[in-house]
Amino acid sequence: MSDDNARTLADDRRRLLAELELERNQVWRNIEWCRIRDIERPFIGDWSLKDIVGHLTTHESEVVTAFRDLREGRRPTYFDIDDLDRWNHDHVERKRAVDFFSLLEQLRSSRTRLLEELALVEDQNLVDEETPEHKLVRSVIEHDRAHWHEIAALLAGMEGVRPLTSSKRNPAATTVSSSS
Fold first, then answer.
1. Ordered DSSP codes for the chain
2. How do the domains of the chain map onto residue ranges?
3. CA-to-CA distance for 69 and 63, rounded, in angstroms?
4. At what angle do helices 3-33 and 132-155 cross, to 10 degrees?
5. CATH classification code of 3-175
6. Residue of 20, 22, 88, 86 lying closest to 58 (CA atoms)
7. pLDDT by 10s per residue, the chain, length 180
8. Which burial class, exposed, middle or buried, applies to 39 when counting CB atoms under 10 A from its CB (0-12, 13-18, 19+)?
9. How far apart are CA 126 and CA 3, in angstroms?
């Protein structure tokens, strides 16, 4: 690989990771603008702010596990989630008993674990749009974006926000072949 190709891959990696950081920063900004009463009561649909934070934490933890599975040559179970609504409901229910501030800390630590996993991925695998690694990173970016858009729309007094992805299917599952 030439030095120019290596530099291009490294630049593409930096841009992708910057986008990942930007979207998470938007999540944090919007959480900070919410009211204390939004923590426990229904905020967006049936979900409270606490439910959304728990959901983001669970999703990112699943992606971290998927990266580990890929690194160890296994197909991630994350790719086999067909009914996201059911999966989300089940995992939100599991997190409901957890304290909100503990969930915030879990969200911070899940990002740390994700970045540690990403550091182990070669530039080519991370930036090539056809790789499962790239698709996983994209799923986190789009997931964060979808949730902060929903929160921002509500905070702005808008009735809703245009859907960014289907809630019925796992976007990573539809873009990664079964042989991956």
1. --HHHHHHHHHHHHHHHHHHHHHHHHHHHHHHHS-GGGTTS--BTTB-HHHHHHHHHHHHHHHHHHHHHHHTT---GGGG---HHHHHHHHHHHHTTS-HHHHHHHHHHHHHHHHHHHHTS-HHHHH-TTSHHHHHHHHHHHHHHHHHHHHHHHHTT-S----SS-SSS-HHHHHS-TT-
2. 3-175
3. 10
4. 30
5. 1.20.120
6. 88
7. 566 677 799 999 999 999 999 999 999 999 999 999 999 999 999 999 999 999 999 999 999 999 999 999 999 999 999 898 899 999 999 999 999 999 999 999 999 999 999 999 999 999 999 999 999 999 999 999 999 999 999 999 886 655 545 444 455 544 444 343
8. middle
9. 18
Largest CA distance in the chain: 56
Query: CB burial class (10 A; 0-12, 13-18, 19+) of residue 167?
Result: exposed
- In sequence order, what are the beta bridge partners of 44? 47
Could you give the CA distance from residue 61 to residue 110 in angstroms, rounded to a whole number? 6
Q: Provide the residue type at 114 as one letter.
A: L
CA distance 180 to 12: 23
